[in-house]
Amino acid sequence: MSRIQANPLGVTGDQDTSERSTSARNASSPPGRVDRWLASQLAGRFDASRLHIALWDSPVREGRADMPVTVRFEDRGALYKLLANPAANFGDLYSAGRITVHGDLMVVMDEALKEPRTNPRLAAVLAHLRAQTPTLADSRDNIHHHYDLGNEFYKLWLDSEALQYTCAYYADEAMSLEQAQVAKMHHVCRKLRLQPGERVVEAGGGWGGFAIFMAREYGVRVRSFNISKEQIAWSREWSRQQGQDSLVEFVEDDFRNISGTYDVFASIGMLEHVGVGNYRKLGNLINRVLTPEGRGLVHTIGRDRRQPLNPWIARRIFPGAYPPTLREMTEIFEPNDLSVLDVENIRLHYARTLEHWLERYEENLDAVRSMFDENFVRAWRLYLAGSSKAFVHGTLQLFQVLFSRSGINRIPRTREHVYLPVD
Amino acid sequence: MSRIQANPLGVTGDQDTSERSTSARNASSPPGRVDRWLASQLAGRFDASRLHIALWDSPVREGRADMPVTVRFEDRGALYKLLANPAANFGDLYSAGRITVHGDLMVVMDEALKEPRTNPRLAAVLAHLRAQTPTLADSRDNIHHHYDLGNEFYKLWLDSEALQYTCAYYADEAMSLEQAQVAKMHHVCRKLRLQPGERVVEAGGGWGGFAIFMAREYGVRVRSFNISKEQIAWSREWSRQQGQDSLVEFVEDDFRNISGTYDVFASIGMLEHVGVGNYRKLGNLINRVLTPEGRGLVHTIGRDRRQPLNPWIARRIFPGAYPPTLREMTEIFEPNDLSVLDVENIRLHYARTLEHWLERYEENLDAVRSMFDENFVRAWRLYLAGSSKAFVHGTLQLFQVLFSRSGINRIPRTREHVYLPVD
Asked: A-B interface: how many C-beta pairs under 8 angstroms?
């Protein structure tokens, strides 16, 4: 199977599945009173000056900056399906082109992820619809997901400096994506107070950008673990090009198999994929491989309170991913005699990072279209826009947790050193 | 009953209790082989170049800076009682003068609170002794504690600036106690980004120093809750003298009865006395009184993992106190839709604060002795020295947790503003 595929998400339009033919036919009959009432109830949840709901009989209006954004239902089935479970179904309907957005998708996501205004009448209708349509709601739940979309795809919209597929740090609001990813890496290294010659182990190294950065900028020796063969190959080649291959070793293995002894443990954007049930094991591992004076940092997407991942994201984008709460994260530290020194929540930085990614994604649409079909193009746009707004509205958090072994006093007395100008 | 008492801890020397007459008599018979073996086992747990164990027949050596500190058992009962349960019994034995320290008590605390070196033979003997002496071990557990020792006592050794009986912040290592307490108050206010005219509610305000500081330095209006009549009276008088009584209101009531609406919730050094079972209620209360864009900070002694307070401290110094873990603290935030923005662990600053307090305490011994008996003088010295070393070795933590309502974006994007020079 080719690495780059036309439809890696397995999302299909209505016309492609025979079971959809009824609702597809329905789309051709004009909206009735019930359809219009449902649409008006839906519209009532949003700020009318920003977002307009249209049905399949209304003319398509192109978006203008001074006009509300139009969300248009292209068939009756799409309207019912959305109302039955908006969080779960919007993604596929939008990806399939059965819901179209005319104007800025970011505005739609912003409205959708705001504090929901309660509408008891709509809630009752939704409960009713939901009870009537379990098979409709469940019918697309088969996962045809493909996670590995190829380096070429990510290179289109990630930073060119270090290919960081994690939250950047905008020390200054005006920073470019490249500058902010470099600032993020410095921010982590400064919190850890890396010293030349120290040994660092990295769990989940992506394309190796951070490992190479630590070696080059801080003179540490890095072993970086990753289970992706392709990323490991890329990382090795890249570190050779950068002349850092004597200091950085890339190991194709699961973090659970980390061996050796290290001064520092670092993990940026892996915990989301570890699973809460494995946190204690992760802590055991850290405890096992750290020197007596060791320290570490875990950087992860998180939550203020326990909540499942958005079902569409879980199905189409990140199967098995879970953003933990701080309470859940303590399972890494408390049973393993590790001491939390510093927690920073930088969720607004991830909102900005995703804006930057989305801008580049849109700039490179032609290249994306040469790799994938329109379903994919829309799904990925939605994922980037929706995630950005989830960070803006606090549905998602971004935690950096700095820790050391309990009772170790090589910890910084204050955090001031993190904020000194970089020379 | 007088506010200042000769023996507020209820600790008495052996000679004062008839049930001690047997062990007191034992003290007069010279140490035997078993006594010496037990003492040597005990000595084996410590660094011999720093700490020397002596029995009641050896000559008393005055401490010298270049000599090991001597810990001297003044009778056989003291030796057995200590070995039966060192953490629980050292305090009373030292306070009663049955264990004497010749040289720097800080060195003894340092050695005692280091990572314990396992000694399986001693552990077996201790288990045996413990099984034989349940009544001996329990006999002093009656609580004659008096918490309110009077403003005059605390004024002898707390900072003169704001009478802060909580951890200071040494932005610069060379800071005086006064400077570091001012720096702590600025540190908290800057994390909270207090703006003139905002309303702040304080839970547990001590002598009112922080409330007055916030009003004077940041122009906020403060309501400060405290259940101590005496501290409230002091606070009111002080705020009048400072001309801040129009901005600061002191309320003699429990934090559970806080009413009104506030932009900011602040609590420094109260959570230790709240009890884990009340954390959710505390969070409910914060949720109820904060404005929709509200934020807050909780500053508390904590732990890396669950552990009871040292039994002597719990009995003689802080009945009912409990330092929580971060996991336990999340019970305030997660069920109440509050978002943790920043956690800072500044335990080494409390170690230094306690050093400063102990220095002043020793400088004012004559005044302390005019208020209390020798038992008290020793007990309080031990509490200050022992706590300092507990923070050094990580037995205790000091957490500052900054939070806001979930999804509120008035939070600082970075923490840099906290580290700008104070004008």
From this structure: 112
Sorted by sequence, the CB contacts under 8 Å of residue A24 that are 6+ apart come out as A14, A15, A75, A77
Identify whether the C-beta of residue B164 lies closer than 8 Å to the C-beta of residue B145: no
Nearest to B375 by CA among B152, B98, B65: B98
B241 plus B283 within the same structural domain: yes
Quick one: B269 and B353 in the same domain?
yes
Same domain, A381 and A235: yes
Confirm or reject contact between B287 and chain A (CB < 8 A): no
Looking at the fold, whether B296 and B253 belong to one and the same domain comes out as yes
Name the band, by pLDDT with cuts 50, 70 and 90, for residue B127: very low
Provide the residue range defining the domain that includes B334.
151-419
Model ipTM value: 0.87
* pLDDT digits 0-9 by tens, B277-296: 999 999 999 999 999 999 99
Q: Which residues on A lie below 8 Å from B406 (Cβ)?
A: 304-305, 394
DSSP secondary structure, B144-191, as one string: -------HHHHHTTS-TTT---S----SSTT--HHHHHHHHHHHHHHH
Q: Per residue in A91-137, pLDDT tens?
A: 999 999 999 999 999 999 998 887 654 444 554 454 444 433 333 33
Span A154-177, pLDDT tens digits: 999 999 999 999 999 999 999 999
When CB atoms are compared, the residue of A305, A344, A395 closest to B415 is: A344
| Nearest residue of chain A to residue B169 (CA atoms) | A414
Q: Using a CB-CB distance cutoff of 8 angstroms, which residues of chain B are in contact with residue A170?
A: 413-414
Of the residues A328, A332, A406, the best mutation for testing chain B's interface (the one with the most B CB atoms within 10 Å of its CB) is A406
* B345 with A342: Cβ contact below 8 A: yes
CATH code at A176?
Answer: 3.40.50.150
Contacts of A307 in chain B (CB under 8 A): none
> A52 with A164, same domain?
no
Task: For residues B292 and B155, state if they share a domain.
Answer: yes
For residue A61, the model assigns a pLDDT of 75
Q: How many domains does chain B have?
A: 2
Nearest CA in chain B to A352: B413
Shortest Cα distance, chain B CAs vs residue A335, angstroms: 7
Please check whether residue A143 lies inside any domain of the structure.
no
* Contact across the interface for B340 and A393, Cβ inside 8 Å: no
Going by pLDDT thresholds of 50, 70 and 90, the confidence category of residue B188 is: very high
User: B102 and B231: one domain?
Assistant: no
Q: Tell me which residue of A397, A41, A262, A319 sits closest to B411, measured CA to CA.
A: A397
A212 lies in the same domain as A89: no
Which residues sit opposite A252 in a β-bridge?
A226
Q: Is B229 on the interface with A (CB under 8 A)?
A: no
Highest mean pLDDT among A214-223, B22-31, B74-83: A214-223
